[in-house]
Amino acid sequence: MKKLILICLPGLLCLPTSTLTAQVAEPPPRQEEVIPSAPSGALIYGELINPDSLSPLRLLLTEHKLGYRNTTGESEILIELHPGKFLDGVLSGTRKKFRLRLPHKGAVYASLLLDNRVLLEDYVLFPDDSVMMSLDLRAMEIVFGGPDSEWMDAQYAVKRGEASNTFYSRRLMEQDKEGFLNRDHNRDEWHRYQQEFGPSLNIVELGRDGADQSYAKMMNADYESIPGWKELQRHKADLTEDQYDLLEADLVGNYFGEELRSFLQYQYGVPKMKGQQDILDRMDLMLPKLSAKLKGDIVGLAPSTFSLGYNVLISLWVKLELMNSGDSFETIAQCHFKGEVLDRLLASNLMYRVRFTPEKMDYWESYSDYINNPKWKKLAGDALYEYRTGQPVKEVVFYGQDGKEWSLQDFEGTPTLFYFYFSTCSNSEKYFKNYLWPLYQETADQQGYRLVAVSVDDDPSLWRANIPTYSSPELLNLNLPLASNKEWLERYHIDAYPRVMLIDSEGKLLSYNLQGNDYTDYRNRFLQVLEKTNENYTP
């Protein structure tokens, strides 16, 4: 079962995340089922023990999952259920069967969802895999069978081992630890709860003790201490060499990659933003040793097949090395990697960076010349097209406070600036009050545009109660629940909050990435975009 949780880092963006819990039954003795080799993609089949009154089962497939919120080739299959038969092993009339073959000639990341609740997330399936699943969704039990059951069991065990590291989530990253503790009796309560509950909230100051902890965790990590590592070793004898290398690279790469991302983005990034040169000078001494250590991990992994965790780690390592040497991303990548690893690395960097610098489209088009492999060159080209402005925005249904449905057609005739947020996000509150509301009051009448506030809260009552805090009752306030509109939001890169989207009077996208160093810079950039003529693109 998956619950969407919205977390907020002070002064930064608010991110949607999730938790997944399930109970796993001990699998019964398996009988190998003889199934012909798949002519195209993996074969998925099995039974749903209790299909009544449950939402539809959906299979989400991703051909290329390249990094943090960086995917292409996504598709969805609605699983059709059929009555089981006695000779098919179904002894209860309530059970139903399903069988489908994936339309992919290569490996694919697969997620199984019950409506919007994730049951299995990002499981790798190879084109010749044959996997059976027995799903008891009321008890949240999933048992694997079929010729490739060990491969699925190993992935399940490793993911469950990673998720078991619950204490890591009890860490609060603060820009000013002492300032936080001195507010609202926080220090007294924090000390009291430490005595009452034992392991409790760990408050980490960005760039100071946080940097030391993160640095030590990456430098001194013993692979056996990585959550999921012991589970992987227990399954090693049942896996092929390629399967084991893939899981190992995913596990280790994700572990170091997540810590390195935090180190670069928060531990180093926040002090840099605040101009804390004493912290930066001390951290600069850490970078060369950290880079050399992680390069050793990268060389030691080197999976023979694609690994998401490995790709994430090497991409972040290049950015770390960029801070050491000052060279460009592509120069460092070409010096240390080659072949498809290099092409994939360059393509994923392009696909990630273009979303933040769409105004540099000409630069990114020339950047794609570094990519040799036709497959990755095409993906890079598709990404450039996806991030171009001037295209009609795909329809979606918003909900007003009175329950009325709104569509994008309702805004035709007037340029519209949509502001996306969720209640309880302090960054959204500050962004609205310090940037959007002053901008709207100063320029809206003169420029003739409309500002619409859109909450992604799944709880309508929470949204309505907090409109005065995170928006203004003077605006049109709409709701677009995240749980049922995640695909649309991610399509337009609204995956951290606050976010804005500017569309013209014809419903075409003008910008999804308004930024500024301060309010004046923000206002000037906004006015430039608003006045800019749409540039239509024909692929």
Question: Would you give an account of this structure?
Answer:
This protein has 539 residues and is α+β, with helices and mostly antiparallel strands. It has 18 helices and 20 strands. It has a seven-stranded mixed sheet, covered by helices on one side. Strands 6-7-3-10-11 form a five-stranded mixed sheet. The protein has a four-stranded antiparallel sheet with strand order 5-4-8-9. Helix 8 packs antiparallel against helix 9. The N terminus and C terminus are likely disordered.
Rg over CA atoms, rounded to whole Å, is 25 Å
Largest sheet: 7 strands, mixed
Relative helix content: 40-55%
Figure out the total of helices: 18
Would you count the extended β strands for me? 20
Main β-sheet, spatial strand arrangement: 15-14-18-17-16-19-20
The computed structural class is alpha+beta
Instruction: Estimate what percentage of residues fall within beta strands.
Output: 15-25%
> Overall mean pLDDT score?
82
| Multimeric state | single chain
| Low-pLDDT segments, ≥5 res | 1-11, 17-38, 533-539
Shape: globular
End-to-end CA span: 41 Å
Short description:
With 539 residues, the chain is α+β, with helices and mostly antiparallel strands. It has helices at residues 149-163, 177-181, 186-197, 209-219, 229-235, 241-274, 277-284, 287-301, 308-325, 329-336, 339-353, 361-367, 374-386, 426-447, 460-465, 467-470, 482-491, 519-531; strands at 2-8, 14-20, 43-48, 57-67, 70-78, 82-83, 96-101, 108-114, 117-125, 130-136, 141-145, 171-174, 202-205, 398-400, 405-406, 416-421, 450-455, 476-479, 499-503, 509-511.
